[in-house]
Design goal:
Length: about 55
Amino acid sequence: KGGVEDAEMRRTFNMGIGMVLVVSPEASSRILGEEHGPCMPRLIGKVVKGEGVIYK
């Protein structure tokens, strides 16, 4: 409705993710397996070699 492209919205606004940790695959397995109370961790992506950003 506002004429703002999806990519611009993602670049400009938080879009709902409060905090992001970038960790090794081994650490992510450990973190996801622990209890965290009301804040449940989620795997939201991975870093791969290449150019650009791909949203899925």
